[in-house]
Design goal:
single chain; alpha/beta; Rossmann fold; nine-stranded mixed beta sheet; 26% helix; globular
Length: 175
């Protein structure tokens, strides 16, 4: 069991709805041996001709990279955007989610990646907060929701939104 936990901690991110499609990772924090699938590739220079030629169905990048990319048409993008962040970085806002939905028309998921490339927290398909994967995040107990997630996972989460936030997001995606 300890070996499985260690392997899980070393994963750089979890594709929210496995299996991962062709995914372009646009940050240079990852090393290929840590990627979960051969369909996931790192493009450390960002969105350049090699990433375009890869024709990804999903993109994983920082908020700033995705904001810049929001004006670019990516015809092959059909699955998801994965926002990669470091601990202590500002969280993805509703305005960012709306911008990304309007620009790309695919779901947006957040992940927090530690300084050594380990997955610290990730957002699942239920979009009900970020599942905590390791002890590397500085959180107070009142920020943690230990109730089971609608996705079925029982790992604690943080950043759980109110029902009004969830309804507002659903309405934005429906537009």
């Amino acid at each position: 069991m300890e070996g499985i936990l260690w392997q899980r901690m070393r994963e750089p991110f979890v594709y929210p709805v496995p299996p991962a499609p062709r995914t372009a990772v646009l940050v240079n924090w990852f090393r290929a041996p840590l990627l979960p699938s051969p369909s996931v590739r790192i493009f450390p220079s960002g969105w350049k001709s090699d990433a375009v030629q890869f024709a990804p169905s999903a993109v994983a990048a920082t908020i700033d990279q995705l904001r810049k990319l929001s004006g670019v048409l990516i015809p092959s993008l059909t699955h998801a955007l994965i926002v990669l962040q470091r601990p202590g970085s500002p969280r993805l806002t509703e305005a960012d989610r709306t911008l990304f939905w309007r620009a790309f028309r695919v779901p947006v998921f957040e992940q927090i990646i530690g300084p050594f490339g380990q997955l610290l927290a990730f957002e699942c398909e239920a979009h009900e907060g970020l599942h905590i994967e390791t002890q590397g995040l500085q959180l107070t107990q009142d920020m943690i929701d230990s109730r089971p997630c609608p996705c079925g996972r029982e790992t604690p989460r943080f950043g759980v939104r109110s029902l009004a936030d969830v309804e507002r997001r659903a309405a934005a995606y429906a537009r």
